[in-house]
Specification:
Structural class: alpha+beta
Number of strands: 7
Largest sheet: 5 strands, antiparallel
Order of helices and strands: EEEEEHHHHEHE
Shape: globular
Number of helices: 5
Oligomer: single chain
Length: about 210
């Protein structure tokens, strides 16, 4: 149903302070794609976290921020969006841009999420490794993009992130709104610097 031609399913993942990630399945007949949009009712427009239509474009999220969003959704009814942390994590997983850097933490957590949604036990370990190691830590961005979300700034050293380091959406978002976003993303974490290319899943050694 999510990929049914002619329909555009939309799923929402609400998180702190009114922010949300809206996932749009663009099911054009010959040009399907997937968009992850960052939203807030106080913003002038939605900001693109990631678009996929043959290649990945957008900053994505680092593991720490992605996990924080997945696991700290507000208490909301089903009309407000997805609430199950495991479902939220798996839906947001295409945003992951630094999985290999955090594989030790990410692989067992993703395996647990797969197990929780009913994946066969014999598949979860390999699937989780593929989902994590299929993300590369290299990124691509166009330096001409105006938004800090484009990855124009270098990645700060690990452990030196703070609210001011969060990748801010571009036009229409004030510094105060950016600080609110930073707090909603957990205050600290791995800032994204562009778009990760998907690598081939390594075959585990026997």
């Amino acid at each position: 149903m999510l990929y049914e031609e002619g329909s555009w399913p939309v799923l929402r993942v609400p998180f702190g302070d009114g922010h949300g990630v809206v996932v749009v399945f663009r099911n054009f007949a010959d040009d399907a794609g997937l968009d992850f949009l960052l939203t807030h009712p106080g913003w002038a427009r939605a900001e693109t976290l990631l678009s996929y239509d043959g290649e990945r474009r957008g900053p994505g999220l680092g593991w720490r921020r992605l996990l924080h969003v997945a696991e700290t959704g507000p208490d909301a009814g089903p009309d407000e969006g997805l609430s199950d942390p495991d479902v939220r994590l798996l839906l947001l997983l295409p945003l992951l841009d630094d999985g290999q850097r955090h594989a030790r933490q990410a692989v067992p957590r993703i395996a647990g999420a797969l197990r929780a949604v009913g994946a066969p036990e014999e598949t979860v370990a390999l699937a989780a490794r593929c989902l994590v190691h299929g993300t590369a830590d290299e990124v691509w961005h166009d330096p001409a993009w105006g938004s800090p979300l484009s990855g124009g700034a270098p990645r700060p050293p690990e452990g030196h992130e703070g609210p001011g380091d969060v990748p801010l959406p571009g036009l229409g978002v004030t510094p105060a709104q950016g600080e609110r976003l930073a707090r909603a993303l957990g205050g600290h974490g791995e800032p994204s610097t562009g778009v990760s290319s998907r690598a081939t899943c390594p075959i585990p050694s026997r």
